[in-house]
Amino acid sequence: MIETPEMHRGVRVGGWSWVWRPWIVLVTVVLTALTFLIFSVSIAIGDFTIELPAVFRTLIGQGERVDEFVIMDLRMPRALVGLIAGVALGISGALTQSIARNPLASPDVLGITGGASATAVFVVTASGGTAIANSIGLSTAALAGGLLTGFLVYFMAWKKGIDGFRLILIGVSVSAVTQALTTWLLVLADLRDVARAQRWLVGSLDSRSWSEVWASVWIMAALVLVVLVAAFQMRPMHFGDDVAAGLGVRYSAVRAILLLCAVLLAGVAVSAAGPVPFVALVAPQITMRLMRTPVPPLIASGLFGALLLIGSDLIARTVLPNDLPVGIVTAIIGGPFLVYLLVRANLKRAA
Amino acid sequence: MVVEQRGPEPAPAPEGPHRRRRLGLAGLLVLLAAASVLSLVVGARSLTPAEVWQGLFGDPGGDQRLVEITLIVQTLRVPRTVLAVVAGIGLGVAGALIQGHTRNPIADTGLLGVNSGASFAVVLSVYLFGLSSPLQYMWFAFLGAAVAGVLVFGLSSLGRGAGNPLTLALAGQGVTVFLAAMTTAVALGSTQALDVLRFWNAGSVQGVGFDVIWPAAVFIGVGVFLALLNLPAINLLNLGDDVARGLGVNIAANRTIGVVAITLLAGAATAACGPIAFLGLMVAHVARWFTGPDYRWLVPYAGLLGAAVLLLGDIAGRLVARPAELQAGIVIALIGAPFFAVLVWLGKFRQA
């Protein structure tokens, strides 16, 4: 290009400095507002509708008693679990795609989903209906299984450091093993348990409680903090390992930490909402296009993930028949998007 | 483009490579025959070879025990052995062909979403038409496998051909996740579909009659024939499209033949047994280790190896969980996935 691109102004506060990019700030603010709006709508709609102003009043503690009971005790946990799982999936997806340097990568292939699924199906089929009634036990077991598998993939892929390519292929292989085990468990199980397990396997936000919300909130907050601190070191890594090393980034350590965070975040999301497909794949890619950044942005991806998940849940509750879980909606959105990404990736390479 | 790293060249045998390869092929045939005999003998009720012989060719007469043996051998053991051999050949040849055409060492019918396409079609047909016998939904499985395979294969080879193995694997994974969610959406609405689905998904050669096996065998036979026609061209296509065109290969025609052959082979095998992942990938790599990169040898090797491995996997599944059985598809996945992981770890796949 002949004309020089418009320069952005630098901002410096004490020891910190960054570039002021109005567009990115604007998109983030708009995304936050939209997420809050859809969050409120999700609370407002249910067996009977509560007017939006009443929802806002209740959220700031000025609502009527009836509304307060319905909102705070019944609908809030579901929406909050959607918010948390969405943010966790979005950030986890952005990290995975950055590390693997492939727009099609998502934390599903890191083994967490497969491990969590196999464990959850085992719990459901081994204990019958009791595990569903006690859904905290189920989500804890799924979390443990998912993380165990995630670490297994991580250590199997370790060969003088972590390499995105090897990591994902090892993840595909480990996922296949867990999938085979899941299939086998389903063959052995009672048919009624199979239906319950299948429902969990596609990801759902039904009947959540406050205790599940609090457990995931704290873990997620801690992880997001770590990610945001480490993210400063990640930016030079997009230029390749050699450049990053030249700029003084210990890329091997940074990559290991961020990947660990991606695994843990995905684990939090899966244990809270089940393996909801495609949110982690779609959110970073759409956000990247909205923001016109060359790499998936972290915070905005999280926001968009929440927007996508809560919105899909809303669609699943209001439009779909049979009380189908949210994972079906995200798959319907994500499938065509995947095809679009594939076509784009291939055509770009051919050009 | 993808480059497969070659191992060190094996020391040339004094008799020349062709003789060695022919000997290897003969050895594989012997292995396959031995595995077939084993497959007739081993099971929930073990039989001696003499009893099997009696069950196959003898006249049971009025003896209760002999009638029982004849029944076991002829209606259970023989069909599953035949199906394992036929489907194994189909999946093995398809695996080698897919790798040859995509020039992608990671290509496999399971990884590319063919299996999940078949699953979705089966569940949908059971839900919509209330089908209950494998003979009926086999055709839908075939259709689903073909559509999903062509979709993934086509999408990932748009532009200048399937490039990055990682993109192909992730595309297959994504399509699988999508179809699995759709399958669940249908299955949650119908208990019958759910029940068919879970058994079908395990991938088994057991309990399928000759009424299903014969059509599948015909499709696989046609597929193998097309594959053999395709072999010389694959060697040239692997030099790159430009070079191949310069050497007089009709690229479009040969690619078409290849895709049709792969669809017939993998689709028929999947329709008859259910999803069996990693078999094609595994045997193609083992075959390459024996024969080198010449597809005229590699594909027959992969076919025979596929049959032998599927048969042995089925036998192993009968032995580990006696008197119950572990389905062959699960056994193959449990063997094949670690095999794949080892290949990855050894650096057999490279991003170029």
Automatic annotation (TrEMBL), chain A:
SUPFAM superfamilies linked: ABC transporter involved in vitamin B12 uptake, BtuC (SSF81345)
Extent of the signal sequence: none
Listed Gene3D superfamilies: ABC transporter involved in vitamin B12 uptake, BtuC
Places the protein is found: Cell membrane
Sequence intervals crossing the membrane: 20-45, 79-100, 112-133, 140-158, 164-189, 210-233, 253-283, 295-312, 324-343
Major place of residence: membrane
Key words of the record: Cell membrane, Membrane, Transmembrane, Transmembrane helix, Transport
Membrane topology: Multi-pass membrane protein
Keyword Isomerase annotated: no
Pfam families reported for this sequence: FecCD (PF01032)
Annotated CDD domains: TM_ABC_iron-siderophores_like
Similarity comment: Belongs to the binding-protein-dependent transport system permease family. FecCD subfamily.
Protein's name according to its UniProt entry: Iron ABC transporter
Protein's organism: Lentzea cavernae
TrEMBL record, chain B:
Alphabetic keyword roster: Cell membrane, Membrane, Transmembrane, Transmembrane helix, Transport
Bilayer-spanning residue ranges: 23-44, 81-98, 110-131, 137-156, 168-192, 212-237, 257-286, 298-316, 328-347
SUPFAM superfamilies, sorted: ABC transporter involved in vitamin B12 uptake, BtuC
Topology of this chain in the membrane: Multi-pass membrane protein
Membrane as UniProt keyword: yes
UniProt key word rRNA-binding: no
Signal sequence range: none
Gene3D superfamilies in alphabetical order: ABC transporter involved in vitamin B12 uptake, BtuC (1.10.3470.10)
Localization in the cell: Cell membrane
Main location: membrane
UniProt similarity note: Belongs to the binding-protein-dependent transport system permease family. FecCD subfamily.
Name of the featured protein: Iron ABC transporter permease
